[in-house]
Design goal:
Blueprint (H helix, E strand, L loop, with lengths): L1 H27 L1 H29 L5 H19 L1 H34 L4 H19 L1 H32 L9
Helix pairs in contact: 1-2, 1-6, 2-3, 2-4, 2-6, 4-5, 4-6, 5-6
Length: about 180
């Protein structure tokens, strides 16, 4: 029983240290980290395409949607791997447009809802305005979104890794409780 706990704690420490190292890499090599993340998304898309193709080939049904999904996932994976810089430049623009449209429509809906239910919709209106402004900023400066995402991921990985190591140390100080004592 103690051996299993030690193996589990050792694996958690390895994951925590890897998270801290990856977080530091994200903080200090932001432009390379973004390309790496897009490349990883491409690999995930290729693996997904292989899964769809295998499900079509060996599955109980011959759903043509599976082969279509496999082709689409493979094309996305190849695109992400072959031109990660173009993807990094294009995706924030699309996200900015989506945020801007969402913010504007939710801003209008917040006042329509306030008219229906009576009262004031200041909270939802302010939140919607902030989302619209964020969308506009992302359209104007698309690189800022990518930098912010990588910065947030780096800090999150470092904090998560440190917190995991702290919890492992605290857990090791406790004596294991045998719940099956008779």
């Amino acid at each position: 029983m103690g051996s299993m706990w030690q193996d589990f704690a050792r694996n958690r420490i390895i994951v925590a240290i890897a998270g801290i190292v990856l977080g530091v890499i994200f903080l200090f090599f932001q432009s390379r980290a973004i390309d790496f993340l897009v490349w990883v998304m491409g690999i995930i898309s290729l693996v997904t395409a292989a899964g769809y193709a295998l499900a079509f080939a060996f599955g109980s049904t011959r759903n043509p949607g599976l082969i279509g999904a496999a082709i689409f996932s493979a094309l996305v994976g190849i695109l992400f791997i072959s031109v990660p810089t173009a993807i990094v430049d294009f995706l924030p623009f699309v996200i900015g447009i989506i945020l801007l449209i969402s913010g504007i429509t939710n801003f209008m809906r917040s006042f329509a809802a306030a008219g229906l239910f009576g009262g004031i919709a200041l909270g939802p209106a302010i939140l919607s305005a902030i989302i619209a402004i964020l969308g506009l900023l992302v359209i104007v400066r698309p690189g800022a979104l990518a930098d912010a995402v990588v910065l947030f991921m780096g800090i999150s990985l470092i904090v998560s890794g440190i917190f995991d190591i702290y919890l492992i140390i605290v857990d090791r100080r406790k004596q294991p409780v045998d719940i099956y004592v008779r």
